[in-house]
Specification:
It is found in: Cell inner membrane; Membrane. This protein has 183 residues and is of the alpha+beta class. 61% of the residues lie in helices and 13% in strands. α1 packs across α2 and α1 crosses α6.
Length: 183
């Protein structure tokens, strides 16, 4: 996914407020819900005839139906987003908010692709591996990919550890091709 510099500024500004209010998780849930609402009725929220105040009012009503309330900062944030017609960046803002939140906790975001649900022992070993290189605890974004057959693929801060059967087979094929070119 490509990220926008503008989305980064919105995400950092909202995170700064969330940190100050000690409500990072609450604000992340707020962004999740707003993204779901926006994406489910994109045509309505992208309609230029509908005023930003009405759009925010609709979002507030839908949030109330889920038992959620919007605080004044969240409302001002959404007002700014809709007034400046940046609502298409909401998913980007949410992803960058989570990324910046992880960094603010002195942790490192890491992608983990694995063929099966990881066991605690596997996660512990992978955490140790990541800590060895970046001296910070990882926060894994885990995705299950059965095509990997076995093993795990971990990516963080430019590092890539591929212990999958699929990765090993590709490596063997590359080496065989190199040997074939040399002879």
């Amino acid at each position: 996914m490509r990220f926008s510099a503008v989305a980064g500024r919105y995400a950092r500004a909202l995170l700064n407020v969330a940190i100050e209010k000690e409500k990072e998780e609450e604000y992340l849930r707020f962004l999740d819900l707003v993204c779901q609402i926006y994406e489910s009725s994109r045509e309505l929220f992208d309609n230029p005839i509908l005023k930003p105040e009405k759009k925010i009012s609709l979002i507030k009503e839908i949030m109330k139906s889920f038992g959620q309330e919007m605080d004044e900062f969240q409302e001002r944030f959404l007002t700014l987003v809709f007034e400046r017609k940046r609502q298409k960046l909401l998913r980007n803002i949410r992803e960058l908010f989570e990324y910046e939140k992880i960094l603010s906790e002195q942790k490192v975001p890491a992608n983990l692709s694995i063929a099966h649900s990881p066991e605690d022992e596997e996660l512990s070993l992978l955490r140790k591996f990541v800590r060895k290189y970046v001296l910070r605890d990882p926060v894994f974004d885990i995705s299950i990919d059965e095509s990997l057959i076995a093993g795990a693929l971990v990516e963080f801060e430019g590092f890539r550890l591929d212990t999958t059967v699929q990765g090993r087979l590709k490596k063997i094929a590359r080496e065989a091709l190199k040997r074939g070119e040399m002879s």
